[in-house]
Amino acid sequence: MATLATTLPGPRRRPRNQPVSGRSSLPVFYTVKRIDNSRLRREVNPEQRRECYVLLGLTAVVFAFVFLFAWQHFQCVSFGYQIEQLKTERASLEEWNHQLRLEQASLADPQRIDTLARHSGLASPTPDQIIRVERSGEAPSGNEEVARSVPKLGPPTAVITSGH
Amino acid sequence: MATQTLESISTMMERPRTINRSLILSGVLALWMVGLLVRLYQLEIFEYVELLSRAQRQQQRTLEVAPERGAIYDRQMHPLAMSLAVESVYAVPSDIANKELAASLLAPLLDLDRNDLLGRLNAFKSFCWVKRKISSQEVERVLDLNLKGIYFQKEMKRFYPKGELAAPVLGYVGLDDKGLGGLEYGFKDIEGKPGRVLLAEDARRQSFQSSEWEGHAGKSLVLTLDENVQYIAEKALGQTVQKFHAAGGVAIVENPNTGEILAMAGAPSFDPNNYTDSVPLARIDRPVSMVYEPGSVFKIVTVSAALEENLTTPNEVIDCQEGSITIAGHVIHDDERFGLLTVAEVLAHSSDVGAIKLGLRLGDDRLYEYIRRFGFGARTNVDLPGEERGILRPPSAWSAISIGAVSMGQEVGVTPIQLVSAYSAIANGGILIQPRLVRDVYRGNSHDTLPPARGRRVVSEQTAATMRQMFAGVIDHGTGTTARVSGYTAGGKTGTAQKIDASGHYSKSHYIASFAGFAPADKPAIAILVTIDSPVGAKYGRDVAAPAFASIASQTLSYLNIPQDNPSSVLQVASSASARSLRQQRRSREDTRTKNSEIAEAAPSPVQTVSYDHGVPRSKSGTMLLNDGPLATVPDFSGMALRAVVEKCETLGFELKLSGSGVGVEQVPVAGAKVPPGSGIWVRFGR
Question: Which of A109, A124, A141 minimises the CB distance to B161?
Fold first, then answer.
C-alpha cells in the first residue's frame, strides 16, 4: 500500500472543510490510498441467487403471459375481422346461389319449355309414338301391340310430355 | 489519475443531493401512479356500468333478421316458391337537405308518385320507407343518385319461378312476408322465426364480431304435385275455359292409390308474383272452396250404394219410362228418351230416371249414409285452408222430391276435391283415402313425421270393380266417348248440372259441366276431375269437360310412363262412326227385351270392348290403313352379334335401327311381338 502526499493547486471553489476566505490559509493535504481488491472474491449466496433466478423466471413468465394475452387478443380481433368478412362472403355466395336456383327454376318453367319447343317445330308425341323400352330380361308388359302401330321405329329421343 | 480521484471525490460529495432528486422523482411518480390508480378505480368500479353501456352503444349494433320462408317444391324437388333477400329503400328525412329535390329524383326512378313520397318525407323525421323490395336495376339507379339520407335494408321477398303454375295451391304472401292464401297461409311453420344479430363494430363501422340468436328459417314443403302434370292440367283446363268462354273451371289429378294430388288447377288463375294485379275472384282456391251441384257425376254414389246393398246388378234391366218419371208431383225428364236399360247402361247413358229408381230403392237414410260414406258433406282435410264442407242436408230436412234430386246429383253441394276423392275410392278398390298435397316437411336434415294416409272402406272391392267396369262402359259406348284416352282404357262419368241463378231457381242458361274418371280402367293410376263453370256454346259434360279429361289423362299417363293397355283406342276414336252404328244396333236389340227381365246372358257386357283390328299401322300421312297381310314375329336378339342381327332382320324384312356395340341387350318391340313385315326394329347393343 503506497501513499502519496502532494500539494494541489489552489481550488477554484472553497471546499466545505475550508474556512471562508479571510479566516485561515493553512495548507491542506489530501491523502490517496490505493486499495487493490482484485484478489478478493465475493462470497456466493446461493439463496440469494436462487431468489434472483426465481424472480427472473417469474418475470419472464409474467411477461410471456402478458405477451401471449396481448398477442391472442390482437389475433382474436384480427380473426374476428376475417370471420366477419368470410361470413359476409358466405352470405353473398348463398344469396347468389339462391338467385341462380331461382333463375334455373324460371328457365325450367314447363310453359316456357313448351313454347320454345313448339317454336322449334317440335310437337307432342301421339300415344303410338311413345315406346316403353323394356330390357330383354324383363317380362313383357302386355303392351306388345304398341309395336304394331309404329311403322318407323327408333329409340325415343325427344318426347314432349307436357303439351296440348 | 489525480483527476479521476478528484471526480470520484466530487461525486461522493454530491450524493446527498442526487438522493434528494431521486426521492422527489419517485414521489412524483408515485403520485402519478396513485392518480392513475384512483382514476382507474373510478372508471372501472364506480362508472363501470355507465361506461360499459355507452361503449356498447357505440360499438355494438343489434339487427333484426327477417326469417327466410321455407321453400316449396314439387314432388321432383323442382322449386315452386322460394325467398330471396332483396333491397328496400328507406329514408332518414332529417338527413335530407332538400326533400323536394330528393322526391323529384326518386319518384320517377322507383315508379312512385312524387307528391306521395314528398308527403312521407315531410311527415317523418327519423325513418320512412321509400319503396320496399325493389329490383336490382332500381337499386343501381338509386345508388347512382348518391343521395344523402337514402339508405338500403335487406328484406326477404317471395318469388314464384313458375309464375301462375299451381298458384291457387301455393297461395301468395304480402309485403310483410305473411302468407295470405293457399299453402303459404295454411302452413304456419313455413314462416320461420325472426332472429337478431349482435354486431361489434369499430370506429369505421366495420364489424369484427357477430353473434346470432333465436331466429330460424321456416320449414320447406315438398308437395305431391308434379309440375309437369300440373302444367298439363292447367293447359287443358285453360284451353277448355277459353274455348267455351266459361266463367271458370277446375281440374284435379290424383293418385287414387295414395291420395296424393298430382295436379290441382283452377281457372281463372293469377300470378302470385304480382297478385295485386289480379281480381280477388281469381285468387279463390276453387278446388276446395267451390261448392256446386254436381249433376250426374254424383250417380257414383247412387249406383255404388245400390250395388253394395245388393239392390241391383249391372245387368238388371230398368225401365226408364221413355225418359220421364214423376216424383211428388214433379216430372223429371231424361235428355234422351230411354226405354229399357241395364243398370250399366243407365250409368253409361246417364239416365236420370234409372238413377232415381235406384235411389228410391235405397231410400232416404241409406242414400244419405252412402253419401256421407263417400265423404260428401264433410271436409276432406286436404292440406289447404278454406276448404268447404259442401251442402248436404240430413234426410229429416229432405222434401218428397229430394230422394229423386239427390240420386241424380242435385240438392247436394260438393267440392271438386270431394268428387275426385270419391272417384279415387272406386278406382282403388273401395277405400276413401284422405287426399294429400304435402309429401314432406323439413328444415335442414330434420323431417317432420307426417301422419300416414288415412282411408276407410266405403264399398267392397267387388262393388268397386263392378263400378270400374261400368264406368269404362260410359267411355266406351256411353255419354263419355269424347273422354277416350288414346292408348289407354279409362272409366268415368259425365255430369251436367244447372246452376242456381240469382232468383234462387235453376238457371236455363248456366250449367256446370263435369267429367270425373280414372285411367287405366283396370288398374287406375290416376283419377281426374274436370269441372267447367258456365260454358257457352255447349253445356254437356261430354262436350265440354270430357275432351279435357282425355287430354289430361293421355299426356299424364304417358308422362308417368304407365304402360299402354289399349293401343288400338286410337283407332277406336277414329272409327267413331262404326261405334255409333254399334250403339244403334244395341239400342235396337234393347227394344226386343221384355220389361224387368234379367237378360244377363243375352245383353252384351257393358264393359265389353268393341273389337277392332289390333294390327293396323298408320301411314305417314296419318291415315289408318287396314293391313290384312300376315304378321311377323319379332325374334329375340338378345345375346346376338351385330352381324347376326342384321342378317336376321334382312331375312325377315325388318328395318333395323341400332345403337351401341357388342351383343344385343335390348330391343323394341320385344321378342315375340307380332308386327307387320317391314316394321322397324330397334336394337341396343352392349357388352
Answer: A109
